[in-house]
Amino acid sequence: MIKTFIRERRSWIFLIVLLQLLALLMAYLDPSLSLGSIYYYVFLAFVISSIFIVIRYFKETSFFKELDARDSTTDMTSLPEPTSPFESLIYEQITSPIEQIEKEASWKHLLLEQEKDELLSWIHEVKTPLTTLRLIIDRTDDPTLKSELMHEWLRIHYLLDQQLHQKRIPFIENDLFIEKVELEPLLYSEIHTLRSWCLKKGIGFDVELASSKVLTDAKWLSFILRQLLTNAVKYSEEGSEITIQSFVQKGQTTLSVADTGRGIDPRDLPRIFDKGFTSTIQQHDQHATGMGLYLAKKAAPPLGIHISVQSTIGRGTTFTLTFSKENQYLQIQGV
């Protein structure tokens, strides 16, 4: 701090010293001037200048010491008011860039909110012609053409659905309605939507629900099940079967979705819920977005659901949803 102060004030320290040297030079060159008096003047000037510099050092550097003592996250509006032109200059140099950054951050946040609202509006608008397209496909007589069109329609429908829920997840707490939900109608509704795809691949479902009710939000649970079921159908072999079971274990309802497909490589298992991650052994699969399981994992905690997975290469994959007990859910929500 001392070095910084001297470096900042070296110009007027040099001026003070120069004036004292000038007085000594004049006394040396002019015999009419008393050398003793000049020495006395220079001594007094040196003492007074030194006291002045010390006072100014402690006064001006106290501002910086207060800055160093504060946490980096402290609001700049709470900084002490400057008491000198030097402090005012430093205060302005520090606060001006921060205020500019805050304004830019606020503006960018506003733009992001506007972009999100426009995207949500666009998704809802696209759903109308998509519904019309579904009605047109239903009236198609050619079964082969109808099956192919429905498959592509499903892909568009699920991509839009993912995008919609991705934008809603940051505010999921505002969109929850927790109640006792029947699993059976929820599951069969999602299976029915996948019917054309399943018929095309010859995939069947074996549903056994020993526990039929869970405490959750129906809309968001449907979204999670949608991601698991589409994955199961997508990676199952033709003519295979997907097993869905529910049971009570240690007072908690557990729902599993198991397929007999290609399975997941052990090195991929820790990363399947990461955003944008796709399989490292199926690089030719250009349709995978790596978003379905990521969004399902993000949506699960606010619902009090824990998602786990077990998989064996060549033998299939089982995703398990474990629902919280009622009192556990209240603890999660902080009630």
Automatic annotation (TrEMBL):
Protein topology in the membrane: Multi-pass membrane protein
One GO MF term attached to the UniProt entry: protein histidine kinase activity
InterPro entries reported in the protein's UniProt record: BphY/WalK/GraS-like, HATPase_C_sf, HATPase_dom, His_kinase_dom, Sig_transdc_His_kin-like_C
Domain Histidine kinase: 121-327
Entry EC no(s): 2.7.13.3
TM ranges: 12-32, 38-58
Localization, UniProt: Cell membrane
Reactions catalysed according to its record: ATP + protein L-histidine = ADP + protein N-phospho-L-histidine
Keyword set, alphabetical order: ATP-binding, Cell membrane, Kinase, Membrane, Nucleotide-binding, Transferase, Transmembrane, Transmembrane helix, Two-component regulatory system
Name this protein carries in UniProt: histidine kinase
Source organism of the structure: Alkalihalophilus lindianensis
Upper lineage: Bacteria, Bacillati, Bacillota, Bacilli, Bacillales
